[in-house]
Amino acid sequence: MTSRERVTAALRRQSPDRVPIFMWFHPGTTDRLASLLELPPALVADALGNDVRQTWVGNNFAMEGIVHEQEGETHRDLWGIQWVRVGHFNQILSSPLADAGRDDVLAYRFPHAHIVELLLPLARLLETPGDAFIGADVSPCLFEMVCRLRGMERAILDLAEDQSLASSLLSAAADFSVALAEAVCARGGIDWLWTGDDVAGQKSMIMSPGTWRSMVRPHLERIVRTGKRHGLPVAYHCCGALRPIIPDLVAMGIDVLNPIQCNCPGMDPLELKREFGEHLTFMGGVDTVELLPNGEAREVYAATAGLIEAMTAGGGGYILAASHTVPPETPLDNIFALYEAAGVSRAEIMDRAAGLRRRCTPPLRPA
């Protein structure tokens, strides 16, 4: 099977030749793997055999796609958010609406005029699609986007103190997300539309489920309908304890749920599979808190093999991924054990890396 066929089978809850894989690594983990495989970091996912290739086209590109070389370097994105490199990541230095008055918040305009520019990373990805399953990430779409513009504390206070203002900003965020999603889908070449909106913490939701249903869900449904109208599966990313709204996600037609943070209340992967497995394909669930960084390779193999068996019961409906980015302190033997449990041997990974080195011109230097 090709990667595209493998992921498509999982989405249809059929039986692929092996479980599809879409793994995200902390930049420090990627650098260590790159050194071992003698590859540039950008080719590590290909060497490991990820079945999904995906790029950001929304504000997540400003956060993760722009990579500064030096600590403390900054940039301002098209939304007016200023970012600064801290460690391996960009973090928000200033939010354009953090101190804005009500009138200025209502006057804020999303970067509709720059949608063509925002699609450039997708165009570059589609230049060499290969046999991978291709995704385009338009997130963050709604409340998480508002948090970046207002600051999380202010965004939460708006929900409590000025719901009219919060509703207006959420509606504007949704208008932009729908327009961006429409442009992405019309561009063609993708296999799913990836949405996302972190509305949960590690113990519970950030807002009450009732507030989410009245103020966020109607807008998310508009984005989902955009993908569906183009005949695409729609994936949804939300970290944390979002169990109370999973039935809503099913009802609106979400196809894939990620990342299944298994240490959060209500997010046990096997329980979710039993309750919602007829309707959702799950992606994630491999513990990055204890198992991957602290377990032994044999424990990682056994736990991953057991997870795959349980999550694919009935034929499919599962994409192997971690519950978060694989942390840099994870032993490399544990990473190889995880892939081994999925049917991808260390020897296969090393052979694929050697092939990538041979195909590159000029010849690659070790990372």
Tags for this model:
367 residues; alpha/beta; TIM Barrel; 2 domains; seven-stranded parallel beta sheet; three-stranded antiparallel beta sheet; 18 helices; 46% helix; globular
Task: Explain how this protein is built.
A 7-stranded parallel sheet has the order 1-5-6-7-8-9-10. By secondary structure, the protein is of the alpha/beta class. α8 (143-150) packs across α9 (152-161). Helices cover 46% and strands 11% of the residues. The chain folds into 2 domains: 1-50 and 259-367, no CATH class; 53-255, TIM Barrel. The protein has helices at residues 3-11, 27-37, 44-48, 59-65, 102-107, 115-118, 120-125, 143-150, 152-161, 163-187, 209-215, 217-229, 246-252, 269-276, 291-294, 297-311, 332-341, 346-359; strands at 52-56, 74-76, 82-86, 89-94, 133-137, 192-196, 234-237, 256-258, 281-283, 318-319. The relative contact order is 0.14. It is built from 18 helices and 10 strands. β2 (74-76) and β3 (82-86) form a beta hairpin. The protein is globular and about 60 Å long. The mean pLDDT is 95.
